């Protein structure tokens, strides 16, 4: 059994050069041995800016959430979805997207080439890890997309383009079928008539305003839907022995205790311990991808670590990792998370895209008044003895006392016992690109 993460990002809405940035899809092999993704200087800059966005988005989302709710995000999915949308933005709207993501000094061609190459490289870097990245644009009969917008996003983001009648059974079936294919069935039930259909009596009644119907405004007045998915399914390089798994107590963020099944094993893995945290890096398959688990010292919390974490601090922390014999005890866990990102994205500086009076998408379509009505992500992840599975849909509409965790001595292994809230990050090793990030507060 493998484990995985699935994610969906979607935007609800009322030039790519010939040079490939990282790897040519036609020539990209599936690597059985570890192989690095080689980035030029500007490409490395974009990757670091994406990681800066990842920590900013996680911090903003965690601060807006309920104190004991687990959070899971795919900053990669959000960045790719916003990159696709950026190709249609102009004026202040484009400036806000590019500034918030840290791209203001880069051309569209540089951004599109980077994302095209990164998609190709991530999907091919390890044949034993299933990483599938998908984009789609769903259109009502109008507006018509500008030709350049369609061509760029088809060429650089592998975007599928569909024309549907929003609210019809056919549209619902088509969208869910596309999601099922892109996420290996993990998100096939994302849309359902009970949540997202406009009631028939409201749809045909001119005296009722569907824009105030919380359960139905997706359909009435919707002109376009941008969907982006990331599906990750990978086996550990060194699986945990299921015979060593056992029940342990996990102290939740609210102080309650839950009995959970912990996976146990002594491993020679990358590890670092500071006064504030300990981090272990568990590789998948050929080592191209890893799960990094950050465990705060008992004198601080996971949320405080997130608030303080910046991209330079993260890069420095990763740079301190060293191969160490570690006794790892990590709970099996599953997280299912759905979150509207509108306020988080606005807080990060992209408020214009949600306002019909200020949004400018002239390179997307000649239609007037186009803006983003809603942006959200829905994600599922499972971590067990075999590995990790995760998916996202971006939808645009342990030591007692005060010692640092994991002190290593000459005659015994470091101890990494995850018995309280923790942060976890799935990333590609050579580029450092963060694919998923989250915090587990309660099991």
Note down, in words, how this protein is organized:
The chain is of the alpha+beta class. The chain is built from eleven helices and 16 strands. The strands form two sheets. Strands 2, 6, 7, 8, 9, 10, 14, 15 and 16 form a nine-stranded mixed β-sheet that branches. It is globular, with a radius of gyration of 22 Å. It starts with a strand and ends with a strand. Mean pLDDT is 83; it is low at 1-6, 14-30, 194-218 and 398-411.
List keywords for this structure.
Antithrombin, Chain I, domain 2; 7-stranded mixed beta sheet; 9-stranded mixed beta sheet; alpha+beta; 443 residues; 11 helices; globular; single chain
Secondary-structure blueprint of this entry?
Layout: E1 3-13, H1 41-64, E2 71-73, H2 75-86, H3 91-101, H4 108-124, E3 130-139, H5 147-157, E4 159-163, H6 169-182, H7 193-196, H8 200-203, E5 224-235, E6 246-251, E7 257-273, E8 277-284, E9 289-296, H9 302-308, H10 311-319, E10 322-331, E11 333-340, H11 342-347, E12 372-383, E13 387-396, E14 414-417, E15 422-428, E16 434-440
Parallel strand pairs: 3-4, 10-14
Antiparallel strand pairs: 1-5, 1-12, 2-16, 3-5, 5-13, 6-7, 7-8, 7-10, 8-9, 9-15, 11-12, 12-13, 15-16
The CATH architecture is: 2-Layer Sandwich
- Sheet bearing the most strands, described? 9 strands, mixed
Q: What's the gyration radius in Å? A: 22 Å
Average pLDDT reading: 83
């Amino acid at each position: 059994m493998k484990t995985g993460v699935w994610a969906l990002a979607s935007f609800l809405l009322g030039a790519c050069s010939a040079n490939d940035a990282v790897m040519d899809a036609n020539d990209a092999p599936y690597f059985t041995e570890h192989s690095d993704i080689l980035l030029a200087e500007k490409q490395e800059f974009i990757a670091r800016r994406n990681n800066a966005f990842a920590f900013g988005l996680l911090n903003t989302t965690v601060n807006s959430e309920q104190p004991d709710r687990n959070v899971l995000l795919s900053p990669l999915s959000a960045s790719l979805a916003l990159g696709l949308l950026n190709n249609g933005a102009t004026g202040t709207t484009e400036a806000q997207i590019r500034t918030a993501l840290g791209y203001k000094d880069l051309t569209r061609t540089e951004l599109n080439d980077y994302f095209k190459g990164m998609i190709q490289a991530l999907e091919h870097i390890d044949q034993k890890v299933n990483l599938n990245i998908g984009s789609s644009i769903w259109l009502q009969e109008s507006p018509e997309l500008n030709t350049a917008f369609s061509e760029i996003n088809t060429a650089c983001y592998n975007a599928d383009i569909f024309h549907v009648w929003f609210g019809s059974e056919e549209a619902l079936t088509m969208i869910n079928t596309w999601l099922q294919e892109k996420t290996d069935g993990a998100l096939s039930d994302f849309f359902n008539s009970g949540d997202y259909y406009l009631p028939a009596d409201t749809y045909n009644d001119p005296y009722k305003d569907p824009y105030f119907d919380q359960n139905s405004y997706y359909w009435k007045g919707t002109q376009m839907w941008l969907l982006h998915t990331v599906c990750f399914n990978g086996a550990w390089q060194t699986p945990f022995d299921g015979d060593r798994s056992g029940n342990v107590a996990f102290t939740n963020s609210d102080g309650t205790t839950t009995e959970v099944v912990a996976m146990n094993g002594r491993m020679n893995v990358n590890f670092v311990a500071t006064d504030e945290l300990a981090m272990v890096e568990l590789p998948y398959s050929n080592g191209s991808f890893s799960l990094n688990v950050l465990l705060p010292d008992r004198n601080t919390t996971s949320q405080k670590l997130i608030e303080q974490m910046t991209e330079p601090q993260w890069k420095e922390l990763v740079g301190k990792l060293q191969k160490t014999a570690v006794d790892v005890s990590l709970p099996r866990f599953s997280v299912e998370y759905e979150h509207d990102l509108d306020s988080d994205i606005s807080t990060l500086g992209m408020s214009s895209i949600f306002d019909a009076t200020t949004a400018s998408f002239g390179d997307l379509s000649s239609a007037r008044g186009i803006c983003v009505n809603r942006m959200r992500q829905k994600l599922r992840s499972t971590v067990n003895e075999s590995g990790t599975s995760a998916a996202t849909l971006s939808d645009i509409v342990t030591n007692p006392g005060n010692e640092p965790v994991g002190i290593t001595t000459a005659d015994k292994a470091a101890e990494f016992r995850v018995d309280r809230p923790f942060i976890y990050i799935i990333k590609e090793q050579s580029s450092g690109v963060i694919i998923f990030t989250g915090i587990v507060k309660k099991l």
